[in-house]
Amino acid sequence: PMDLSAIKKNIESGQIRTTAEFQRDIMLMFQNAVMYNSSDHDVYHMALEMQRDVLEQIQQFLATQLIMQTSESGISTKSLRGREANRKQDPNEK
């Protein structure tokens, strides 16, 4: 069985180290809740609602990570280009 306390324990112990691993376990928890509770049970509906919210949050997190990686790559590239331009302007170099 997978629940939030098990997920927390796995994060703290290092068994969950990536967003994909977290997503796998949290989705398993939601699937179990939906599978083992009938559609007229509150847990069933709460699991579906939480699943939608968590997926949205994970997608936002991944998008932010991508933006950060892209901007860090751009900064590295710009700083390298600046160094190359400075080298070319040095009259002592041939």
TrEMBL record:
Record's Gene3D superfamilies?
Bromodomain-like
Query: Which key words are in the record?
Result: Bromodomain
Q: Tell me where on the tree of life, at the top rank, the source sits.
A: Eukaryota
Which SMART domains does this one have?
BROMO
Q: Where is the Bromo domain?
A: 1-44
Q: Where do Basic and acidic residues bias regions lie?
A: 81-94
Q: Where is this region: Disordered?
A: 73-94
| Protein name as annotated | Bromo domain-containing protein
Please tell me the species this chain comes from. Cirrhinus mrigala
